[in-house]
From TrEMBL:
Protein's recorded name: Major facilitator superfamily (MFS) profile domain-containing protein
Keyword Transmembrane helix attributed: yes
TM helices/strands, residue ranges: 36-59, 71-89, 95-117, 129-151, 157-176, 205-228, 240-258, 292-315, 327-346, 352-375
SUPFAM superfamilies: MFS general substrate transporter (SSF103473)
GO cellular component: plasma membrane
Superkingdom, natural source: Bacteria
Keyword tags: Membrane, Transmembrane, Transmembrane helix
Length: 384
């Protein structure tokens, strides 16, 4: 029964994050419908990333002090309800409002849900977190394909029916999901929690968060601006949604495989070697076409995402009894900060061209490996 509850919990993550993938493939359609420039579409990416990610430290702080199932159930339902409305938004103002509301649903879900996933396992936390994160990245990969097929089949005006999976999963999670969430703090009072928690080692936490920010920047740029590059090559909405799927699903596999690997060979090694491998693969994707390009993008996604579970578990180890906040920093704050850059990135893309923007972005993973080298003095702490 414990495994079933964990699987249901991971399913909720998959469905929740699938709605976060709705915007990217629809950006060209929304840009045409609302007459948006590349800069404005970049700011839409910033808005969704800010609401879905930057608010997570607040939810993490709140979840550590007042753990409750409502964060998870309400988060899934809100993300599904509001992201399913972006196709019927009559103007840019309403579009921004539903994006913010849906993003807040996603951000509400993550800190409590990640802490619960970690709390449900005692041994091999790397594998458990990897499986849980894989569910989310798989959802984010499936979201663009699902919404693209839905829109091509029934049109934007029928998008609200996409909220049905969120409602179903919220009910299933309430009935059969994890129990005893109020015990995730492992203390009887807020005061005991704060007094017994060890001091936070700020230097390695800053380095880990910086690494997560750089990963987020790279993934967001490719996920959201790749569609414009592929559109210039004559691909359809359905076609470039599959490229987004390749990147994200490759990431899902990388998270699962290397999350388990980090339990065996160490988190530091995974964090050092996997990001740098993605750089030549991103270049291969941009320089080729057809099947080879698709495979290269899948493998690039595999390696750029691969170190995420190791970073999350390392942060949780260094922030003992503050696991929700640790997760919020590596997932929420990092992605939110990366999202802040998407507006300026859109402007840069207008100046130098989307293709050149993607070429430059392919170098970013190298910086992740450099950041890991800076963490070397704290290696024993993150491997604890």
């Amino acid at each position: 029964m414990h495994r079933i509850r964990f699987l249901i919990h991971s399913l909720a993550h998959l469905v929740n994050d699938s709605y976060g993938g709705f915007l990217a493939p629809l950006l060209p359609l929304l840009a045409a419908r609302h007459e948006l420039s590349l800069v404005t579409t970049g700011f839409l990416v910033t808005i969704v990333t800010l609401s879905a990610s930057l608010a997570q430290p607040f939810w993490g702080w709140l979840s550590d002090r007042h753990p409750h199932r409502g964060y998870i159930v309400g988060g899934v339902f809100a993300s599904g309800l509001f992201f399913s409305m972006i196709g019927i938004a009559p103007n840019l103002v309403v579009l921004v409002i539903v994006i913010i509301a849906g993003g807040l649903g996603i951000s509400c879900f993550h800190p409590m849900a990640t802490a619960v996933a970690s709390d449900m396992t005692v041994r091999r936390k790397g594998l458990a977190i990897a499986f849980f994160v894989t569910a989310g990245t798989s959802g984010f990969a499936l979201g663009p394909v699902f919404v693209a097929l839905l829109v091509e089949t029934v049109g934007l005006h029928w998008m609200p029916i996409a909220a049905v999976p969120a409602l179903l999963v919220a009910v299933i999670w309430l009935l059969f999901g994890p129990r005893g969430i109020s015990g995730t703090n492992k203390t009887d009072s807020v005061g005991t929690l704060q007094n017994s928690a060890p001091a936070i080692p700020y230097s390695p936490i800053i380095l880990l968060t910086s690494s997560s920010i750089l990963r987020g920047v790279c993934i967001l740029i490719f996920t959201n601006f790749m569609s414009f590059h592929l559109e210039t090559m004559g691909l359809s909405l359905k076609s470039y949604s599959f490229y987004i799927f390749a990147l994200q699903f490759g990431g899902s596999m990388g998270v699962l495989v290397c999350g388990s690997l980090s339990d065996k060979i160490g988190r530091w090694r995974v964090m050092l070697w996997t990001p740098v491998v993605s750089t030549p693969l991103f270049y291969l994707f941009l320089r080729t076409e057809g099947t080879l390009s698709f495979i290269a993008l899948f493998l690039a996604g595999f390696f750029i995402f691969a170190s995420a579970p190791a970073v999350i578990v390392a942060a949780q180890k260094m922030m003992f009894r503050r696991e929700a906040m640790a997760s919020a920093l590596q997932i929420g704050l990092a992605w939110g900060t990366a999202g802040l850059l998407m507006g300026p990135v859109g402007k840069l893309g207008e100046v130098i061209g989307v293709y050149n923007l993607l070429l430059a972005t392919a170098l970013v993973p190298i910086l992740l490996s450099v950041m890991t080298l800076l963490i070397t003095p704290f290696r024993n702490q993150l491997e604890a």
